[in-house]
Design a protein that fits this description.
- The protein has 149 residues and is mainly beta.
- The chain has one domain: Outer Surface Protein A, domain 3 (Alpha-Beta Complex), CATH 3.90.930.1.
- 11% of the residues lie in helices and 50% in strands.
- Strands 1, 2, 3, 4, 5, 6, 7, 8, 9, 10, 11, 12, 13 and 14 form a 14-stranded antiparallel sheet that branches.
- The radius of gyration is 21 Å and the shape is globular.
- The termini are far apart.
């Protein structure tokens, strides 16, 4: 009887650790957790399909590392990445799940460090690296993902 009791307790505990847990936001939000218990990501739906909404991801320290809109289950819009001080450090544009547009790396002061053009998921166009003062440090030309010399 004692073994059965321990077994049932273990099953109950495992079932609680496998659950997403209570939602802090929408009743339909979906959350994933790190094995240590910290929040890894949460999806906050904007409609009843469960395919549209906002996806937020978090680091082990509990701080948000990125945020992106989802449409039809894929990234759509600008994904913004953040440092530990909640400052944007990267902006990646997506259209229907594919990188498309100018990806930017940012200095802590918000100025652009790098601007890299993407077309249909491939680097294509003139990429630029910038100094902290905003002046152009270097340019590079990409064609269909290949660096031009």
């Amino acid at each position: 009887m004692k073994k059965l009791s321990l077994f049932l307790c273990a099953c109950v505990l495992l079932s609680f650790t496998a659950c997403d847990g209570p939602s802090l936001g929408s009743a339909n939000s979906k959350k994933k957790y790190y094995t240590g218990g910290g929040l890894q990501s949460e999806f906050i739906p904007s409609d009843k399909t469960g395919q549209n909404g906002v996806l937020k991801q978090y680091g082990y320290n509990g701080k948000m590392t990125s945020k992106i809109n989802m449409r039809n289950g894929v990234k759509d819009g600008t994904e913004t990445w953040y440092d530990d001080n909640a400052r944007p450090i990267r902006q990646v544009p997506f259209i229907n799940g594919v990188r498309h547009g100018i990806m930017k790396e940012l200095y802590p002061n918000g100025h652009t460090m790098a601007a890299i053009p993407f077309q249909k998921g491939v680097r294509h166009g003139t990429a630029q690296l910038y100094n902290k003062d905003g002046s152009v440090f270097r340019t590079a030309e990409f064609r269909n993902g290949k660096l031009q010399h």
